[in-house]
Model the fold of this input.
Amino acid sequence: MSGRPAVFLDRDGTLIEDRGHLSHPNQVVFIPGAVEALRRLQDQFLLFIVTNQSGIAQGLLRPEAVQEVNQYIVAHLRRAGIKITDVYVCPHRRADGCQCIKPNPYFLHQAAQQYGVDLRRCFTVGDHPHDVELAHQVGGLGIYVCTGHGWKHLSELPATVSVVPDLRVAAEWILASCTGDLRGGCTAAEIGQAAQVLRSGGLVAFPTETVYGLGADALNRAAVKKIFQIKNRPPHDPLIVHVGSREQARQLASDFPDSAWQLAMRFWPGPLTLVLPKHPSIPDEVTAGLPTVALRMPAHAAALALLWETGVPVAAPSANLFGKLSPTTAAHVREQLGEKVDMILDGGPCWVGVESTIISFAHGQPMLLRPGGIPLEQIEALIGPVRIPSAEDFPGHAPGRFPRHYAPRTPLLIGLSPPRTEGKRIGLLSLLPPPNSEPFALVEVLSESGDLAEAAARLYQALRRLDQAGLDLILAHPVPEVGLGRAIMDRLRKASSRSCVNEPPP
Ligand code: TXA
Ligand code: MG
Done:
């Protein structure tokens, strides 16, 4: 039977935050990036919601209330331009022995009959092992997300299950695997050529999910030195080493504490960098002489294809001039580095848009060195408290802790209203549309719906446009410092700091 491919989405913990038995639409909070993910999926897939609501059988929820919540979700998505074909609810308890509770594929068969879904080409996404099992029952593919209760049940999963941080990354995987695009928009010939350039000591700019990186063979000292020259980067600022697998990462660290491994299992491939005691094989040029190495397995299919093809770890900072805005498209890389690199791989725009979160395991308790693409809350939910370093932790300079970094040329001020500035051209960077845009020569809104993940994905592009508009000042409204808001505020503070970038350490 040929039919339409479909994605069956779990509701609580996958599409919306899991807040117990939801009985009213005002309790609905969409998981960051979820709406954007569905928008990308709907071009190729019918979308369904399948949810177990045993609260109904337990007398904790009225069926009408569940229906009202579901209708609200569907209507909200419709307003965002997304069509949910149907919503299926199992109201029973597991002990009731019904046919329709997950992982029984009852509703999947119903969708096949009602809407002509081809179940062999279906995906299920959810934060519970039964969401994965649901697809496997019908020959589809189940993907496990770590939002909602995902982190709690992770240990119950069979080792072969695909685990991703959230629905956004799940959507990337689904799109990549169904189009056969396992090279992130690059051709096999391009990946092959880029790998050859790296193996022969050259430099390749390549896409990752966060920002574009400027890569060299991490085990080739001369190649690594070229990165510093081209970027004009001070030699005391160490590089992140990118790996194609967790196993490769393990071989590059002389110690991999349990909690670091837990993070690697959960968030790799993804926007997380782990600083660990280094293996002697890593040259000092990469780590700036430090006894530690920063490791990350990126999630962009082109980056992974390159790492697999090359077979060596790849040292790569962001592919911009030191202290300048990070590039989130191949065009940005061309603008800043152009002819200076041997090859630029174009894998489209980066979808996370801010650099990876860096967690150090160098000094006992894990420490946050840089907020980034994985929210601190998700990390702490898995391994417990992470130390936020204070000034005393880093007397003088420390790697990656320059106050000014990621900067536009135009002065940037964080605040709610501009200082007195008659006759000056001021641009505004704001999470939401401002009530009054009249005083501003240019307004960049990061997310119409206030979604911090969407805002992060657009941050550097927006700053770039503001920087090119011939303004006297950029006013940036502060954003809430939760989730990805922490990374956004960190970059804005660094962009606003007036101190010098290039000071060597004392
Ligand atoms: O998302 C990302 O992390 C991107 C993409 C390309 O992977 N890369 C990136 O690299 O942002 P870069 O060089 O712009 O920032 C790396 C940061 C620097 O602040 C550096 O000081 C810090 O990582 N770092 C590297 N090795 C370290 C180490 N051994 N100890 C402490 N910090 C380290
Ligand atoms: Mg769930």
Observations:
- The CA atoms of residues 346 and 416 lie 37 Å apart.
- Residues 499-506 have pLDDT under 50 and may be disordered.
